[in-house]
Amino acid sequence: MESQQSFDDTAIYCPQVKVDLIPVKNQEFHTLEDVETFYKSYAKESGFDVKSFTSEKKNGVIVRKAYVCSKQGTSKVTGKKRNRNRTRVNCKARIVVARRATIGKYVVTIFDEGHSHPLTTLRRKHLTKIHREVSSIHKSLTKQLTAVNVPTCTQFDFLGVHSGGVENIGCLQQDIYNYKRDCRKEVEGHDGDMLHEYFLLEIEKDPSLIFKIEADNENRITHIFWADAISRRSYKFYGDVVIFDTTYNTNMYSLIFAPLVGVNNHGQTIILACAFLSNETTDSFVWFFKEFLDAMPGDAPRMIITDQDPAMTKAISEVLPQTFHRYCSWHILNKFSEKIDPGKYTRYYDEFQDCIWNSENRDEFDARWTSIVVSSGLSDNGWLKTMYDIRSTWVPAYVNHIFSAGMSSSQRAESGHAFYKRFVSKENTLLDFMLQFNRAVTRQRHMELMEDNVDINEKPNFHSPF
Q1: What pLDDT is recorded for position 3?
Q2: What distance lies between CA 234 and its chain's CA centroid?
């Protein structure tokens, strides 16, 4: 391990490099870029960082320019700032060039070689800023790895293996984070336009794709709806029963992701339509359901399954009055532990479950529910009274007369959220989200294709006891 040693503030440290790398007075350069490149090459070999310093102009042309060691000057702290280590030690190392009009070149007029601090050793040179740059190859690799949700820390490990060691990568992990930050900044203020252009390009490939983007008075996006040809065709065959649920943390703008899903003939969850909403108000849900009905072929669904969100319930009754609105049984059952006494929950929950799932008709359910409530002493529980009053929206004995494709909860939507979040994150721009989300949908549809292939090429074995 390399030991840390104190250094003498009065000592002068001179780089030990090849002679042809050392600047000399009266050395000539065609441009300032040539000066900077030469001095930085010298600094790389020497073990220090360079920063551009003072310059003088005459008639718009730089006639004098200085480049100095990054430790030039002194560190000053004014006011309340976060505590940082002192990095400047008033180093005097520098190169100064002046433009000679007679020859049209820049000439070295001052070269101070000595540093007032130890120079970076060979083992630590890759840590200095002058040695660090995210190369074009690494930028490309980073974009590709990000596209398949490889975390930045894992990307850096991969680059280390690919380069034969982290010291050979040419940058630090923080540099990759900074590069990604800069990429995000490039699209700030343009993300909505880029998303619009993306949809227009997609329409060229899929003319049946439908999308709509709405913004407020300040030109901030409030609603986005889209459904491609496959989703619209799927609705035609599997749109009798749909599930609607929302989720968060899928984009950097905190827009709410609202997919509407169904189930296909293989029992797989499929995407029927998607939206981004700025809030979960009745107006937003009304907007979504109207766009959904306009986009889909055929009539409204026969059943929609959601949680008990009041705004969602109101919107469905307004836009889908002929659609049976079923509440998610799973959400209701999960609330038993919150709404009733812990001791009574432990003792009677199984009885409630058996009553809900195994009652063969409405009369049996009513009788069993009443018996359990009385015997448990929960007759005064307001939440149980409310759940009983709305039993026609969630209890199987009351809703099984309507085709539900074997679904009684919105868990399919929630498991779908978990699946999509393997591809998207809260750091995504809207365009990033679409690219990543389409990867997820492509994976989902490929699984459907595999099941179709099995149906065509394989036949089930039928067994008979006779």
Answers
A1: 46
A2: 28
Residue of higher predicted confidence among 427 and 287: 287
pLDDT of 287 > 80? The answer is yes
Q: Answer for the pair 171, 444: CB distance below 8 angstroms, yes or no.
A: no
User: What is the Rg, in whole angstroms, of the alpha carbon atoms belonging to the chain?
Assistant: 34
Q: At 26, is the secondary structure helix, strand, or coil?
A: coil
Listed residue (423, 421, 435) closest to 187, CA to CA:
435
Alpha-carbon distances, residue 433 vs 202, 213, 372, 401 (angstroms): 15, 15, 48, 40
Alpha helices in 60-170 (DSSP H): 136-147, 152-163
Amino acid (1-letter code) at residue 260: L
Q: What angle do CA 241, 324, 248 make, to 5 degrees?
A: 65
DSSP E strands, 259-347:
260-263, 269-277, 303-306, 324-327
State phi, psi for 442 to the nearest 5 degrees.
-60, -40
Pairing status of strand 241-244 against strand 303-306 = parallel
Query: In degrees rounded to 5, what are phi and psi of residue 457?
Result: -105, -10
CA pair distance 426, 376, nearest whole angstrom: 45
Q: How far, in Å, CA of 200 to CA of 387, rounded?
A: 47
What percent of the chain is modeled with pLDDT above 70?
Answer: 96
CB 429 within 8 A of CB 181: no
Strands (E), 184-329: 210-215, 221-227, 241-244, 256-257, 260-263, 269-277, 303-306, 324-327
| DSSP 3-state of 263 | strand
Give CA–CA dist 237/242, Å, rounded.
12
Is the predicted pLDDT of residue 397 greater than 50, yes or no?
Answer: yes
How is residue 211 annotated by DSSP? E
d(CA 301, CA 308): 19
- Stretch (H or E) spanning 201: helix 191-205
Mean pLDDT of the chain: 90
C-alpha separations of 19 from 22, 24, 35, 283, 432 in Å: 5, 10, 17, 75, 50
Q: What sign has the CA pseudo-torsion 81, 83, 85, 89?
A: positive
Collapsing DSSP to helix, strand or coil, 112 comes out as strand
Instruction: State the virtual CA torsion across 262, 292, 421, 278 in degrees, nearest 10.
Output: -150
Distance, CA of 86 to CA of 71 (rounded, Å) = 10
Alpha-carbon separation of residue 304 from 151, 154, 245 (angstroms): 37, 42, 10
pLDDT category, 214, cuts 50, 70, 90? very high
pLDDT digits (tens, 9 = 90+) for 348-376: 999 999 999 999 999 999 999 999 999 99
Q: Note the pTM of the prediction, 2 decimals.
A: 0.72
Neighbours of 327 (CB within 10 A): 24
